[in-house]
Amino acid sequence: MKKIALDVRNLHKAFGEKIVHKGVSFQLFDGEVLGLFGGSGSGKSIILRSIIGLERPDEGEIIFEDQDLTRLSERALLKIRTKIGYVFQNGALFDSLTVEENLAYPLREHTDLNEAQILARVNEMLEKIDLKGTNPLLPAELSGGMQKRAGLARAIILKPGIILFDEPTAGLDPMNTQRLLDNVRALKKEGITGIFVTHDIPSAFEIADRIAILDGGKILAIDTPEGIRLNQDAVVQSFIKGADLHA
Fold it and tell me: How much is the pTM?
């Protein structure tokens, strides 16, 4: 039986009159990447932000390591955020720090590594994501694709148990999209567990072990890519219709 890495139970969330989630439930299994997509404003990113405590659901539970994350204090959430990596849509690098300093920051904050060990880990990560030698560059000196890959490196440098990808390919050209997907694919071979939120349906089908479709405030369908492709529900088909999906 597969081990459950994260259990999202009956999430409800509203912003004033706007109801976003009406009982979102799903499980993320250890060692899988779950693709999550839905229309604009469906609340995909709100789910990720709720997992790491940047949003608080109005109702429901998010179980990780036998704890309900929705009930944790801000101090307890800081510790959780070292175990759940977040790849932001824009890379979210510190503008005034070099690439090396950006990647070293979480290691200095959350580990007892010495400076030589930190530099070794930074260089290992930069090589892994095809950014070897960019140590002294500032984020403004990187292309958009390089910024996103540097953000990915910083999100995984503490070797978190779960990685949350928030629209990682948004705004990238096809070549940079493929390079980032290659990085994620390499991480999959190492056994990462993650949620991949995207509008990019072909990318989700390429990367994900299972796909969940968020619609009307709930998970409408969750299945393997092949199961989603064959699902005859009209709403499911409307999501994937027109996408270039190779069998």
Answer: 0.91
